Amino acid sequence: MRKKIVAGNWKMNTTPSAGKQLAEEIASQLKDGFNADEVILCPPFTHLYQVGEEIKQNDKIFLGAQNIHTEDFGAYTGEVSAPMLKDLGVDYVIIGHSERRQYFGEDDLLLRAKVEKALEHGLKVIFCVGETEDEYNRNHSEHVVKRQVISALFTLEPEQFADVVIAYEPVWAIGTGRTATPEYAQKMHAFIRQLVVQRYGEETAQNTSILYGGSIKPNNAKDLFSQPDVDGGLVGGASLNANSFVEIVRQI
Ligand code: PGA
Predict the structure, then answer these.
(1) Of ligand 1's atoms, which has the minimum distance to the CA of residue 215?
(2) Which of the residues 97, 106, 131, 135 is marked catalytic?
(3) How far apart are CA 219 and CA 210, in angstroms?
(4) Could you read off the pLDDT of 66-102 as tens digits, one per residue?
(5) pTM for the complete prediction?
(6) Which of 185, 187, 163, 183 is nearest to 38 (CA)?
(7) Ligand 1: which residue has its CA nearest to atom 3?
(8) CA 196, CA 158: separation in Å to the nearest integer?
(9) Does 169 qualify as catalytic in the annotation?
(10) Dist. CA 176–CA 179, nearest whole Å
(11) CATH classification at residue 236
(12) H-type helices in 36-95, by residue range?
């Protein structure tokens, strides 16, 4: 059966010392256990080491990065690579987040290269897809998400694909407070799972975790997580407060 996962995407927020404290609070509140199979904290690069130290005693809390470069090493000033993160003890990397697509011009082809690089180095991938508001209004959601999933993921071998978690994040719901309805999320998740069935078969599709992201809060998480094809969430704003993040984790 597929894993239930709640991941916190801190984006470019908190300082290293505040991030260490946040991780410490989350780990302490979760130390007596939780129902999700995995909780993943994704702080900025500068916090990874310290956050890793705070969570290492809990074998159900994992460390995630928010980006990687497509090369291992070289003259790419300011970039961070998969082998560096792996060596630091990072387990997951978020790839294809809409903010990377929108503000940094990351396209399907580049994202495919990043996914392959992460998997090559033994990092698991949280791959984000989702339509913009304009695409949603024009009824293009399925078309867009299908293109994003196929172009970046479906060249992978089945054993590589096993290390991919998909996050469906409608761009119009990210940071807006306008959460997708549970019914709409379920419809899109079922659509994505069906794409996986067509490419990798029923068994793989049943084992693929598909997370919802976009304005998840403690008061809407339960309805989203109770949908049959919603296997957890990727939480932005509400992951920056230990109480609200832990409350969301407890809705699974
Ligand atoms: P949000 O962000 O929860 O603040 O909407 C989600 C995300 O971008 O992953």
Answers:
(1) 5
(2) 97
(3) 20
(4) 999 999 999 999 999 999 999 999 999 999 999 999 9
(5) 0.98
(6) 163
(7) 236
(8) 10
(9) yes
(10) 8
(11) 3.20.20.70
(12) 48-55, 82-88
